[in-house]
């Protein structure tokens, strides 16, 4: 379950920011997850709650935002939303669509006390 590794890394980032900024308690942690990424939001919620026990984030709420995936077709110039890694261009129907993004995972915000 790689969500556990992600949760551990997320907590390490939070603790590092706490040392830099001097906060002692985290109220909300906001992360962005790409729609095409391999991260299961419910599993991440569970893992984060487990690793946060006994830390400055033990009462933190994990808020997950979804990041859309985009694509570009070098044949017709289409740029826009995509829903799968391997799909034909919605404009010209050729199979050369290049997916850009959608597998993101990053910390976007902390609400601290």
Automatic annotation (TrEMBL):
Binding site for Zn(2+): 73, 76, 89, 92
Residues binding Ni(2+), per UniProt: 2
The keyword tRNA-binding is annotated on this UniProt entry: no
Keywords assigned by UniProt, alphabetized: Metal-binding, Nickel, Zinc
Gene3D superfamilies found in the cross-reference section: 3.30.2320.80
GO aspect biological process, one term: protein maturation
Single GO molecular function: zinc ion binding
Protein origin, superkingdom: Bacteria
Family per similarity comment: Belongs to the HypA/HybF family.
Cross-referenced NCBIfam families: hypA
Job description of the protein: Involved in the maturation of [NiFe] hydrogenases. Required for nickel insertion into the metal center of the hydrogenase.
UniProt name for this protein: Hydrogenase maturation factor HypA
Lineage: Bacteria, Pseudomonadati, Pseudomonadota, Alphaproteobacteria, Acetobacterales
Gene: hypA
């Amino acid at each position: 379950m790689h969500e556990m590794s992600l949760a551990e890394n997320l907590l390490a980032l939070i603790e590092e920011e706490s040392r830099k900024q001097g906060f002692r308690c985290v109220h909300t942690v906001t992360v962005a997850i790409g729609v095409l990424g391999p991260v299961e939001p419910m599993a991440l919620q569970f893992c984060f709650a487990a690793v946060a026990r006994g830390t400055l984030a033990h009462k933190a709420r994990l808020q997950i935002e979804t990041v859309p995936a985009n694509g570009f077709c070098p044949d017709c110039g289409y740029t826009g939303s995509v829903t799968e890694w391997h799909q034909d261009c919605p404009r010209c129907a050729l199979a050369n669509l290049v997916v850009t993004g959608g597998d993101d995972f990053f910390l976007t915000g902390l609400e601290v006390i």
